Amino acid sequence: MIKKGNQVEILSGKDKGKKGEVIEILKSEYRAKVKGINLIKKHEKTTKEKKGGIITKENFIHISNLKSLDNNEKKIKSKDKK
């Protein structure tokens, strides 16, 4: 099960093989946002609060394209203790 803060590996797409930390999850759409993965460029207008321009940020990726790395490490550690 993938949760916020877990380490995951990307299984398919342009970032295949990369690893990162889950930032945000949309359970209703089965999507997750991973730090430094699936970067997009977004054009934003200038407002009173913030400067506009082209901003690079993470976009959501489908959970089926992710493999959790934390669960594997926990299983290995628990087997070593026995």
List keywords for this structure.
82 residues; five-stranded antiparallel sheet; two-stranded antiparallel sheet; 1 helix; elongated
Separation of termini? 24 Å
Q: Mean pLDDT, nearest integer?
A: 89
**Level of helix content?**
10-25%
Structural class: mainly beta
Radius of gyration: 16 Å
Strand/helix succession: EEEEEEEH
**Strand order in the largest sheet:** 6-3-2-1-7
Weakly predicted, low-confidence segments: none
Strand content: 35-45%
Number of strands: 7
Assembly context of the chains:
single chain
Outline: elongated
Report on this model:
With 82 residues, this protein is mainly beta. The protein has 1 helix and 7 strands. It has one helix at residues 70-81, and strands at residues 7-10, 19-26, 31-34, 39-44, 53-58, 60-62, 66-68. A 5-stranded antiparallel sheet has the order 6-3-2-1-7. A two-stranded antiparallel ribbon has the order 4-5. Strand 4 and strand 5 form a beta hairpin. The model has no long low-confidence stretch (mean pLDDT 89).
